[in-house]
Specification:
Elements (H helix, E strand, L loop, with lengths): L3 E7 L4 H4 L13 H15 L6 E4 L3 H14 L3 E3 L16 H7 L1 H8 L13 H17 L5 E6 L1 H12 L16 E7 L2 E9 L14
Parallel strand pairs: 1-4, 2-3, 2-4
Antiparallel strand pairs: 1-5, 5-6
Helix pairs in contact: 2-3, 4-5, 6-7
């Protein structure tokens, strides 16, 4: 069978997510809520059809998220640097507002989603798409007939969504990219297709949740 089922997950929440601070390739850990999200995600994934492999960006916010599922399923983590977030160069460490105030012309090109523009020291959208899809093809082709987990970042998950739906790289983003949400895709040698997107039922805090009881 040439089909590989992919569960693609953005890492759990960080303090920089809350502050709208641009993380890029800076190695920021999960916050307390992000660790809670990772545990809820792990519990849900462990109860689904079995995973056969877990691949994660080597940045700690993704690795911590994936580690919870590794612990719950007994599967080893496979670190994959090609699943790292887009490099935002000199924008990294700044909030979106700070970047717009300091570099208005550059942030305008960013907002326009110019595929060949990159922040100084960063990556173009075209380059990110190419590395993400190349890595996804390579990983999925190892697991035909199986189900794998990819834990990555917003820019990576966005690239997968666009590839699976045929949307142009310049199209405005209108779909959610929530922390620790479950996104389902199918891979074949012909490409990706979308099965389900932004499932967050596992992140709803219940009255009897053990974290708050």
């Amino acid at each position: 069978m040439d089909i590989t089922r992919i569960i693609a997950v953005r890492h759990g929440e960080t303090d920089w997510n809350l502050a709208t601070r641009i993380q890029g390739k800076i190695d920021i850990p999960l916050n307390a809520n992000g660790r809670w999200q990772a545990q809820r995600l792990a519990r849900t994934l462990a109860a689904l059809d079995p995973l056969t492999a877990i691949y994660t960006s080597d940045l700690s916010r993704a690795r911590e998220t994936a580690q919870a599922t590794s612990d719950a399923t007994g599967l080893a983590l496979c670190l994959e640097p090609a699943l790292r977030e887009r490099g935002f160069g000199h924008f990294e460490g700044h909030t979106f507002v700070e970047a717009e105030e300091a570099w208005p012309r550059e942030t305008a090109r960013w907002r326009e989603r110019d595929p060949e523009w990159a922040p100084r020291g960063g990556e173009t959208l075209s380059a990110v798409r190419e590395r993400v899809l190349r890595a996804t093809d390579a990983l999925a082709s190892r697991h035909r007939g199986e189900q794998i987990l990819l834990v990555a970042h917003g820019g990576v998950i966005d690239a997968l969504y666009r590839a699976a739906t045929g949307l142009d790289i310049r199209s405005p983003r209108t779909w959610p990219l929530g922390n620790a949400s479950i996104n389902r895709l199918l891979w074949t040698p012909q490409g990706l297709s979308l099965v389900g997107w932004s499932d967050t039922a596992h992140l709803e805090r219940e009255g009897q949740d053990e974290a708050t009881a």
